[in-house]
Amino acid sequence: MPQPLDYLKETPSQTAGPYVHIGLAPGAAGFDIYARELGWDIAGPEAPGDRIRVEGLVHDGTGAPVKDVLIEVWQADANGIYPHPEDPRAQDVAKGFRGWGRVITDFDTGLWGFDTVKPGPVKGRNGRMQAPHVSLWIVARGINLGLNTRIYFADEEQANAADPVLNLIEQQHRRATLLARREMRDGKPLYRFDIHLQGDNETVFLDI
Amino acid sequence: MKPAEYYQRDRLWQPPQFTPNYKTSVPRSPRQALLSLENTISEITGPVFGHGDIDPIDNDLIKNYAKTGDPIGERIIVHGRVLDENGRPVPNTLVEIWQANAGGRYRHKKDMYLAPIDPNFGGCGRTLTDENGFYFFRTVKPGAYPWRNWVNNWRPAHIHVSVFGASFVQRLITQMYFEGDPLIAKCPIVNSIPDPRAIEQLIAPLDMNAAIPLDSLAYKFDIILRGRRSTLFENRLEGN
Lengths: 208, 240
Hints:
The complex is a heterodimer of chains A (208) and B (240).
Chain A: H1 20-24, H2 26-29, E1 51-56, E2 58-59, E3 70-75, E4 100-104, E5 112-117, E6 122-123, E7 129-130, E8 133-139, E9 147-153, H3 157-162, E10 179-185, E11 188-192, E12 195-196, E13 206-207
Parallel strand pairs in A: 1-11, 2-12, 9-10
Antiparallel strand pairs in A: 1-5, 3-4, 3-8, 6-7, 8-9, 10-11
Chain B: H1 25-28, E1 35-36, H2 41-44, E2 75-84, E3 94-99, E4 124-128, E5 134-140, E6 145-147, E7 153-155, E8 158-163, E9 172-178, H3 196-200, E10 203-204, E11 217-220, E12 223-225
Parallel strand pairs in B: 2-11, 2-12, 9-10
Antiparallel strand pairs in B: 2-5, 3-4, 3-8, 6-7, 8-9
């Protein structure tokens, strides 16, 4: 017998279930317990950049909205800097910028949305730039392991065309499932991003 | 030497998305293959939390929502470590939990189970691991409860656990079960995990050494997050 490899195994995932809000957003579950709920302010009031809103629905395979989904977002600031010690430029990140948010739905409609600043491009592997994007992690009842995907911005045509992740998607028509569509509402930019868990327009999900 | 990529997730150890005995997974599971990515800076970074984000009482579910007295139920300590696949502690990481009360009822506007709400129990807690990856909570043992799947499905007693780790790729939500519960083997959600050894990893043993005599029993639950390589021959993760 060879020597044993003594790695541990990653703890298996289990669904977040229908009551995930109790733990991660208790106000939405209907009670007030923490002095500060986390994840409500992604960019802070002072970070420079384009102030945008992103909204959408998550659809199940029958086309119905998933009303109990919870999404976490992670993004760089407008200069493409992550507020994390492993970003070599972290000391220059925008003041007050957290980069992380927790997004819940309207329980009646399933609509979710968040306000932030539009992220800048960030460096990818081997020096290739990645187009501006927001990383998502999606959990809900019926999802056994959190789903990862990315939001790209449809109006970043040139950067998207060169993005190494979008270009990895073999079926070209599926790349559009990661593009948020720019609209205007009350004079402010709004990006619409619908997620399809299954079906003809199934969103491209990532194994990161 | 600086740490580089995270180990690929073992998708034979993790539950698949499509597990038809857990019915809600049927319309909510992707059918196309995932796109496998090599890590970039977007994946090896993630949110950072500090003691300014939480309060010390947040890890005490017996006291953090008490109004007229302590909640009803079996008093327990849940403690353990957050480690990575290399066995290294994951320090200063946010651990959040939520659970039903001792009667199996959640404090949630969507839970209609007939067991009563406990006026002194909220059902959520959070803490940061210490520099060696240790965490602990005090709570009451949650009750089993019925759920709509087949008409007579019951969830084993469980506590939901959410952990961040140091990067977006380590983010994990799971459920902790209790040693000796006969409902574990019957649960379609538990059985979404194909490997019985992986299921055992979710069952917390009774830990009499951590029990507080004349006060609380204790269960130990270690959480393992993805590890990362640290070799001289790393790929050019950050380029150039």
